[in-house]
Design brief:
BirA Bifunctional Protein, domain 2, 3-stranded mixed sheet, two-stranded antiparallel ribbon, globular
Length: 183
């Protein structure tokens, strides 16, 4: 959109409304940490709830992440490994990795495809400390993510693209319902 004023970015707006705090927090959890405060915390939960309800009403099955690190498309490197009490644990930059693992040994009948899953989880990224300073709440260490995940047949060769188009249409629909501009 074209504005007749200079628009503010999300960090400037959030700090001005006292719903985001990002400055002077490295002592808490390191570089790229933040707090969502008051209405900011409520806004995050409201957006997650809105998205989950929307996708569940459109036929997606809701799931939250469990523990699966191997066989998710990148040889187990999708998640960041960490050790705790001698056991390997996985942390994820996306909820889709553990859900891909759910289907690795799970037979789905052709008549039941496509399977649509909406995944919600707290995600983690270690690669945010790259020396570059992204602006605002981009590429932070920890965040909540809601993601669409699908499993399709390959009988006609177009099923995957059709499901992707459906997911894209749902994203556009949600942004429009929220009154947000997108491209």
């Amino acid at each position: 959109p074209v504005f007749d004023f200079k628009p503010k970015g999300h960090l400037e707006l959030g700090e001005g409304l006292d719903i985001i705090r990002q400055r002077r927090l490295s002592h808490v959890s390191g570089h790229r940490s933040y707090y969502l405060c008051g209405a900011g915390a409520l806004l995050q939960h409201a957006l997650v709830t809105f998205t989950l309800r929307k996708l569940l009403s459109k036929g997606s099955v809701g799931k939250t992440s469990g523990k699966t690190r191997k066989n998710c498309g990148k040889g187990g490197k999708t998640g960041k490994k960490c050790k705790k009490k001698g056991r390997d644990r996985g942390i994820w930059g996306s909820p889709r990795a553990p859900h891909a693992g759910y289907f690795m040994d799970h037979a789905v009948q052709l008549k039941d495809l496509p399977v649509r899953v909406v995944c919600s989880s707290t995600c983690y990224r270690a690669e945010t400390d790259t020396g570059q300073e992204p602006w605002g709440l981009y590429r932070v260490h920890q965040f909540t993510k809601v993601e669409m995940f699908g499993v399709t047949a390959a009988e006609r060769g177009t099923e995957s693209e059709e499901l992707l188009d459906e997911f894209l249409g749902l994203q556009k629909e949600m942004f429009s319902e929220l009154g947000l501009h997108y491209r």
